[in-house]
Amino acid sequence: MDREDQILNLLEHPSLLGFEPLFNHLDFLSKQRGSDAYPPFDVLLRGESTLVVRVAVAGFTRNDLRVIAQPHQLLVLGKRSQDEPTPEATDVFHSGIALRGFQRRFALGPGLTVEGASVADGILEVTLNRAQTGSDSGEEINIQARQ
Description:
Elements: H1 3-11, H2 20-32, E1 41-46, E2 50-56, E3 65-70, E4 73-78, E5 102-107, E6 112-120, E7 123-130
Antiparallel strand pairs: 1-2, 2-7, 3-4, 4-5, 6-7
């Protein structure tokens, strides 16, 4: 049995309950490999519970961008409404500025919620907050008597 089969067998273990979102994230991430170079992004940690995703969106206006919060996923879309011709030049000798549309997905872990988004100076910032959970020691579940 190769390593991939061992991992798949582990993920199908009957004692792993409620991990379907995690398995879906892993599947999603495995399909994202190699396709995530554009646009570049950073993820910052502010304080203990706030994450900020910063995406380079130079050349895109606020109206060209969409941020969609889906269950367990953040979707950032960019589509230019129109190509603006450069009035000074009629011929382009080199085109190195990527203004193509994009779709970037981020898998969100449990408890992360999208708080807002803003764009300035070619940088889109999406703020995520992690829900504060109670004690890490676990919670005892009261057992009710059945009749």
